[in-house]
Amino acid sequence: MRKKWSNWAGNQQATPRSWVKPQNLHEISAAVRDASAQGRRVKAVGSGHSFTGAAVAQDVLIDMSCMSRVLTGPDENGIVELEAGITLSALNEFLFLHGRALENLGDISYQTISGAISTGTHGTGQKIGGLAQQVVGLTLIDGRGNIVVVEEDDPLLQFVRVGVGAVGIIAHVKIRTVNKFVLHVEEKPMRLSYVLENLEGLASRNDHFEFFWIPHTKWALTKQNNRTELPLQPLPPFKKWWQKSFMENTAFGVVCRVGKLLPALIPRLATALPGSGSTSYIDESFRVFASERRVKFVEMEYAIPREHCRAALEDIVRMIDEKNFKVSFPVEARFTAADNNVLSTAHARQSAYIAVHMFKGCDYLPYFTSVAEIMAHYSGRPHWGKMHFLTHEHLSVLYPRWTEFLAVRDQLDPSRTFDNDYLEQVFGK
Ligand SMILES: Cc1cc2nc3c(=O)[nH]c(=O)nc-3n(C[C@H](O)[C@H](O)[C@H](O)COP(=O)(O)OP(=O)(O)OC[C@H]3O[C@@H](n4cnc5c(N)ncnc54)[C@H](O)[C@@H]3O)c2cc1C
Hints:
Layout lengths: L4 E2 L6 E2 L3 E3 L4 H13 L4 E4 L14 E4 L6 E3 L6 E5 L4 H10 L2 E2 L11 H6 L16 E7 L5 E4 L6 H4 L8 E8 L1 E2 L2 E10 H6 L1 H7 L2 E6 L5 E9 L9 H25 L4 H5 L8 E6 H5 L7 E9 L3 H15 L7 E6 L14 E9 L5 H13 L3 E2 L9 H4 L6 H11 L8 H7 L2
Parallel strand pairs: 3-5, 4-5
Antiparallel strand pairs: 1-2, 6-7, 7-11, 8-12, 9-10, 9-11, 13-15, 13-16, 14-15, 14-18, 17-19, 17-20, 18-19
Helix pairs in contact: 10-11
The chain binds flavin-adenine dinucleotide (FAD).
The site of flavin-adenine dinucleotide has 32 residues, from β4, α3 and β11.
């Protein structure tokens, strides 16, 4: 019987014809060469944390979990070379032991480095790009099974760092790290109106600023994380368990389940959330950025030019009210610098990211399509790994170097060995 694959959220499944676990880049190369000679399709899979069908492998699944070693480094410039299947959490621990850290992270660290960069995974910090921006070299296997080494000064790097799995299987990643650092965390509820009026200041004066507006309330939970030289002052174990494990996962999960059964109660349940949010502590960066996520959901996230963040959020607030949607998950807003990766959602523009979520099993379609209409108005670019409904016709106008990317894809994968339904949706055949 064929083994089944499913993503974290459970909304994407596959039953691949073959399941390959390479131990090194030569085994990836051999698997791709064989598959392409037989006209079969190949898909590399990381930790399965994408909500889209990006990692769905119906034919040959390349499971990267045995390629998780650090190959070299950190060298004198802080560069490490990694096998592409290493998870961010394992990399964080390794770097910490060597006095190093990643410059930024998203809000979890379960992803593989290759999966994270391939979809343009990002955190928050308006002077900092997404994870792919720190990549200084890649070793890929192209669609014919050839090994392609891409160095920092090669113009190809800008095309393959965020490649959505369409331009090759990444075997090795060279990434720049920074000296390990400590963050002073301040989490507190603020009036949404205050946050929106002071957005520029909050985003620019903090190293890492984000907020979560709680639908059906006037409140946002804000997070201001700043580098500090002060001594560590982590949350005491019970408080940490209470806040990060019990409140953010167990209790929140109960709220979501009640809301799923009785949606009319959601606005009343939502009023309990702002009271849970005030805290301050000082901890290692990677322990601050990444959290435990046990409540399953589906998510859609768009990058828009930063200057439209306030207007777009006000539109969402109004729309939820007018359409009477009952939404139990906060709406998240984050900020990043512009970058030069051709398919990065922050390509050539300072970006605000707005993310909406729905508890697993709830009908997300009406809410997500309404948010997508608002995002379209602001030239929003959807996260490659999160739910969206756009096709290549829409996407091609959102990325100024789109046709150049398609040409690189033609060059690296002329027979579309890496295609699946999702790639056909977003890039065409
Ligand atoms: C709970 C949760 C929280 C999240 N938080 C954030 C966040 O804070 N910020 C953010 O930006 N995103 C976030 N995401 C999205 C997530 O970071 C991305 O979807 C990421 O791609 C997942 O990495 P993965 O290892 O699971 O890759 P997968 O989902 O397994 O794969 C993603 C893509 O990468 C390709 N790929 C994987 N390995 C390789 C390889 N070796 N070579 C070539 N292509 C490869 C796959 O084919 C697929 O196209 C979150 C997702 C979840 C479920």
